[in-house]
Design a protein that fits this description.
The protein is built from 14 helices and 16 strands. It is an alpha+beta fold. It binds one RNA strand through strand 1, strand 3, helix 3, strand 11 and strand 15.
RNA sequence: GCCUCAAUAGCUCAGCUGGUUAGAGCGGCGGACUGUUAAUCCGUAGGUCCAAGGUUCAAGUCCUUGUUGAGGCGCCA
């Protein structure tokens, strides 16, 4: 066989009359004659027309959905209606057979749950092919966005010694034998005998390390896996997920919001520009699904319109205090339609309140800032009112919180006082405090849940369908 | 962790207030077909009704417990 040409290339350049070789996996085989071949390079398949006179029966019998094959032949304009070009095959080579009796991916609609159980094969479907091509484009765009703005990609550690960040329950990392755990004289586990000579965990966030980088390199970002051992059972949480965390020296909270909004729009625009076919397919799928729903549950906008709308409008920016005023005066609050009725300033906002603000009141993404310090983390800069901190959350329709960030407390005394208040051990975080001792300065950053972004852009309703192999409580298959 | 719902053929589902031998579409298998578009046509096989226990003359259907999954809530990104 000749060197293979990718199908996306052929679909784009259409070299009519040329002899080419393509290799991929069979999606369908019709009329004992037409193979729809997909090689992953494009959403669309290429049609291979087989000349039965030229092709052995033993080869025809091996062509089924899932079969890996190569085809060499002349590229011609298609006589059929479904495609512009096709290959008239002179030679077919079977690489790998696919037993039709046991191959789970049939040319028909499968449920997302079924495909999740077959996550090793779901890449071969239209939907998941589209989702993972978009996921790649978004990951790539993260890097170009920051690189173009002269940020440095900082690799924060996956294994950390600190468990003091308060971002969630952590997974322990150990080489101790669970059947033979060493104890010290006080009867506690003797971590001195463990691999690192101390207790270690998987990281819940690269933020603290990113701050160290930012206060020397100026502007950095991390983009890596993070781990939370929370028993969260929702369509928006994973135990292992990827997080993007930029950190910028001398940025205040408003610069932080500008950066985040600019980044989110950049990512959406990149997807619209580079994933047209995949997005159009997902858009159509969503339309089909929505048409099955009762009228009042259908979204006002469908996928591509929603993405366009986000690009064309400034995000709403309101303080927590303003948000509470809006909620106090809202119909569902007055009529006690909320499960948690807002009664006074200081209440933590529940997802029903966030959804009201985003989906009913503003009808666009909302940036909420200046939260009560009681409901936020120790490292956030305390405002002059001594009641609120310089925190901001970006809320997206259908997703909820997609970004959480803050201006960091750069004053050593205030930070130490906050840590004491919240019982956070200072000795473990001496390095974090050192940054405030030597050349401290204002700085800000945020975390973007990468899968939540992929969810928003693809319109997939369950976060388990936008990461190849999801890890959730009770589930770590593959 | 809490609340709600679900589990029937390989897949997607129907199966009414308990009542003969549990159905359909798709897929599989056998056959036909050289312009098909999730092809079509003819034929055919395929079920421990999630598991265990219970109520009843009789359970896919009712009850209890468990398992798995989904949706919602909390934690967050």
């Amino acid at each position: 066989m000749n060197k293979r040409t990718r199908i996306d290339q052929l679909l784009e350049t259409k070299p009519i009359g040329e002899k080419v070789t393509v290799k991929g996996w069979v999606r369908s085989f019709r009329n004992n004659q037409f193979v729809a071949l997909n090689d992953g390079s494009d959403f669309d398949n290429l049609q291979i027309v087989i000349d039965r006179g030229k092709t052995d029966d033993s080869i025809l019998r091996k062509i089924h959905p899932g079969t890996a094959l190569g085809a060499t032949g002349t590229l011609v304009e298609s006589r059929g209606k479904g495609q512009a070009i096709e290959i008239h095959a002179d030679e077919i080579v079977i690489y790998g057979e696919s037993d039709p009796e046991t191959y789970p991916i049939q040319p028909k609609k499968h449920s997302k749950e079924f495909l999740r159980e077959n996550a090793h094969l779901r890449f071969r479907t239209n939907t998941f092919g589209a989702v993972f091509r978009i996921r790649h484009q978004l990951a790539y765009a993260i890097h170009t966005f920051f690189h173009e703005r002269k940020f440095y990609y900082l690799h924060s550690p996956i294994i950390t010694a600190s468990d003091a960040e308060g971002a969630g329950e952590m997974f322990r990392v150990t080489t101790l034998d669970p059947a033979n755990i060493p104890f010290n004289e006080q009867g506690q586990v003797d971590f001195k005998k463990d691999f690192f000579g101390r207790e270690t965990n998987l990281t819940v966030s690269g933020q603290l390390e990113a701050e160290l980088g930012a206060l020397a390199l100026g502007q950095v970002y991390t983009f890596g896996p993070t781990f939370r051992a929370e028993n969260s059972n929702t369509s928006r949480h994973l135990a292992e997920f990827w997080m993007v965390e930029p950190e910028v020296a001398f940025n205040d909270l408003y610069d932080n919001m500008d950066l985040a909004e600019e980044m989110l729009k950049y990512l959406i625009r990149h997807a619209l520009d580079h994933c047209k076919k995949d997005l159009e397919f997902l858009h159509q799928q969503a339309e089909k699904e929505d048409s099955q729903k009762p009228r009042n549950e259908r979204p006002e906008m469908n996928l591509i319109d929603r993405l366009q709308f986000c690009l064309e409008h400034d995000f709403a920016r309101i303080s927590y205090t303003e948000a509470i005023d809006i909620l106090l005066n809202s119909k569902p609050n007055k009529k006690k339609k909320f499960k948690f009725v807002i009664e006074e300033w200081g209440a933590d906002l529940q997802s029903e309140h966030e959804r009201y603000l985003v989906e009913k009141h503003f009808k666009k993404p909302v940036i909420l800032y200046d939260y009560p310090k009681e409901i936020k983390s120790f490292y956030m800069k305390v405002n002059e009112d001594n009641k609120t901190v310089r925190a901001m959350d970006i809320l997206f329709p259908g997703i909820g919180e997609i970004v959480g960030g803050s201006e960091r407390e750069e004053n050593l005394d205030v930070l130490v006082a906050r840590m004491d208040e919240l019982n956070i051990p200072k000795d473990e975080l001496y390095w974090y405090l050192d940054i405030r001792k030597f050349g401290s300065c204002p700085h800000s950053g945020y975390g973007l849940g990468f899968e939540r972004m992929v969810q928003f852009v693809t319109g997939m309703s369950n976060i388990r369908d936008v990461i190849p192999f999801p890890r959730t409580p009770g589930n770590a298959s593959f």
